[in-house]
Specification:
263 residues; 7-stranded mixed sheet; 6-stranded mixed sheet; 4 helices; disordered N terminus
Length: 263
């Protein structure tokens, strides 16, 4: 386990710029969460090698997110000009961060990360299994402990493999990992590469509550046809959620946003 402690840096939150939200209640003590596959900052309408982290940062900022789960991050790779993408985003947004490499790539790494307006007190990364004989990419789940105004919770990020025979195996292990965590409220966002009717996702639904209940698809960004990006939680109360459908330039996935509060 890797442990990182940062100086306390708190922000008030203000949520804006989202559309098509489903709202149950409102509270001033809500935790705003975003899950966003950023496609290495390469807008799908632009050629490979073109990177626009300013747009990604603007989308995150407009969400008002306190906690962000980010997938498809590059770290000092040749294809994205040697930039430590999560560090750049953290500096633009004045947030704490942790990058977790899943695949060595072009002199750097490709992986997942967390941004947080609150210090990341403890960080753990777990490898998700691959299936012998089946081609798939290495995947992980990243979990950090965050203390929000004296109330601790666990926040996670993952990017599950899309291979149909590998996805449920990784989802089963993901549920096992999450169930083994300390008895704290927990939130996990990610690109699960599966719709809710798939076998592995049903395991998540049986163990955790789905905070991505809005019936809006997340991919592709123009005329989206399915939803594979979700936020799940346990030990918290649902407030509202949305798919940020107007933010359809920066990535090939639409970001998903949720508000939760302590019980």
């Amino acid at each position: 386990m890797i442990r990182i402690v940062f100086p306390l840096f708190l922000f008030s939150i203000f949520a804006m710029g989202c559309s098509q939200s489903r709202k149950l209640a409102a509270s001033s003590d809500t935790i705003t969460v975003l899950s966003y596959n950023i496609h290495t900052g390469n807008p799908p309408t632009k050629p490979k090698g073109y990177v626009d982290l300013d747009t990604i940062a603007a989308t995150i900022r407009s969400s008002g997110a306190d906690l962000v789960a980010i997938q498809e991050l590059d770290s000092i790779t040749k294809r994205t000009n040697g930039v430590y993408q999560l560090k750049v985003l953290a500096e633009k947004l004045k947030m704490h961060y942790h990058f977790e490499s899943t695949i060595p790539y072009e002199g750097g790494a490709y992986g997942i990360g967390i941004l947080s307006k609150y210090p990341l007190q403890e960080i753990s990364a777990y490898t998700l299994p691959q299936v012998e004989g089946l081609k798939s990419e290495p995947r992980k789940v990243l979990i950090a402990k965050v203390n929000i105004d004296g109330k601790p919770l666990l926040f996670g990020c993952t990017h599950v493999d899309f291979t149909r025979s590998v996805n449920p195996v990784q989802m089963k292990e993901l549920v096992t990992i999450l169930d083994s965590q300390p008895a704290l409220p927990i939130i996990i966002g990610g690109d699960f590469n599966a719709t809710l009717d798939r076998e592995g996702m049903q395991l998540m639904v049986n163990q955790f509550r789905n905070a991505s209940v809005a019936n809006d698809f997340t991919i592709p960004v123009i005329n989206p046809k399915k939803k594979i990006d979700f936020i799940f939680y346990k030990g918290l109360t649902f407030v509202q959620d949305s798919v940020m459908s107007s933010h359809n330039y920066g990535s090939d996935h639409l970001p998903v946003r949720a508000e939760l509060k302590f019980q």
